[in-house]
Amino acid sequence: MGTEKERKDTQKAVLYDLRRLLKNSGKDTYTVEELCDLLDTIADAKDQE
């Protein structure tokens, strides 16, 4: 199990991934379903690592 600092670093990395997906999508607004799909994309990519 990781340290508290490692856990916080991981959380920040996930938020940064989401930020990049949102910024690079070219959209200004999102539905809840679209946001959930983006979160699923991040989770799936993390499973592949």
Topology:
Elements: H1 4-24, H2 32-48
Structural class: mainly alpha
Oligomer: single chain
Query: How big is the Rg?
Result: 12 Å
* C-alpha geometry: elongated
User: Approximately what portion of the residues adopt beta-strand conformation?
Assistant: under 5%
Distance between the termini: 18 Å
The number of helical elements comes to 2
Low-confidence stretches: none
For the residues shown, what is the average pLDDT? 87
Feature tags:
49 residues; 2 helices; 0% strand; elongated
Walk me through this protein's architecture.
The protein is mainly alpha-helical and 49 residues long. It is 78% helix and 0% strand. The protein has helices spanning 4-24, 32-48.
The gist of it:
With 49 residues, this protein is mostly helical. The protein has helices spanning 4-24, 32-48.
